[in-house]
Amino acid sequence: MSNVEQQPDFDFQQAGRHVLAIERDGLAHLDQYIDDNFTRACRTMFHCQGKVVVMGMGKSGHIGCKMAATFASTGTPSFFVHPGDASHGDLGMITAQDIVIAISNSGESNEILALIPVLKRLGVFLICITSNPESTMGKAADIHLCVHVPQEACPLGLAPTSSTTATLVMGDALAVALLQARGFTAEDFALSHPGGALGRKLLLRVADIMHTGDEIPHVTRDASLRDALVEITRKSFGMTVICAPDMMIEGIFTDGDLRRIFDMQVNLNDARIADLMTAGGIRVTPNTLAVDALNLMQSRHITSLLVTQSDRLVGIVHMHDMLRAGVV
């Protein structure tokens, strides 16, 4: 802090750009390590009958936590175990059906090295990610993935920077390669994120939020305009559907239609809704994704959609329903 105070004109932007340049260079070198060992690691993880357990100390541990989380959310069951905790009982979480990915830049992490004999005795398959294939971890691994960068972005060469970034990217490369090999879909992704906005958008169906039964505004074609207006007011959707007795849709009438007929000097007392309705109506099925229904509303500049099965009206979904459900 004292050095910064003594350099009031220090160029923080230049320093930041220098870090980005060094880390970009580190990632550029990473391409050479997407090799046969990478393929073997992916195939082994793809066929894993248990879980992928990630380990790492210090900054490598933080990268390992993110790596395990990415695996887990993209179709590869995974969790992180801290090597220190593993030495004090958490090793019991690991079975012979699992795969362990151990991360250490030097490949000489004492906490991980202490666990390797036990993992070998359990018959656990070991993938090590280090910068040195000749390290103790590199030699002990069933598969070694090399992640070596020319230099750290830290000017002292001490704080893990470029190396942790490259390790994170290698983890992403593994996860995404496995995702593609599994044919993992956006809906599969949403199943592991049911509480978030993504889950709501990809899992919520129109059937989950639509109004049904007596909540549906509808009249028959024999209804008067006055009857239709009463139904619109009573149900508060700003529209009503004109249906046959079997709920087959014949047309719709909206607040906007009402404003237009005022300009036509229609006799409100004698008018029949069948003469004023708009035939058809924009429809979706109960199984339509709520986000797709929302996109349809926005593209058509409307606030309600008819929900149908075999052209029969079974529900109404309104823009407000989307807001309440958190789809918007």
Overview of the molecule:
This protein is α/β, with parallel strands linked by helices. Helix content is 46%, strand content 16%. It has a 5-stranded parallel β-sheet with strand order 2-1-3-4-5, sandwiched between helices. The longest helix has 21 residues. The radius of gyration is 31 Å and the shape is elongated.
What is the gist of this entry?
This protein is an alpha/beta fold and 328 residues long. It is built from 17 helices and twelve strands. The chain has a five-stranded parallel beta sheet with strand order 2-1-3-4-5, with helices on both faces. Strands 6-7-8-9 form a four-stranded mixed beta sheet.
Write the layout of secondary structure elements.
Elements: H1 2-6, H2 12-30, H3 36-46, E1 52-56, H4 58-73, E2 78-80, H5 83-86, E3 99-103, H6 110-113, H7 116-122, E4 125-130, H8 136-140, E5 143-146, H9 162-182, H10 186-191, H11 197-203, H12 206-209, E6 218-219, H13 225-235, E7 239-243, E8 249-254, H14 255-263, H15 273-276, E9 278-279, E10 283-284, H16 290-300, E11 304-309, E12 312-318, H17 319-325
Helix pairs in contact: 2-9, 3-9, 4-9
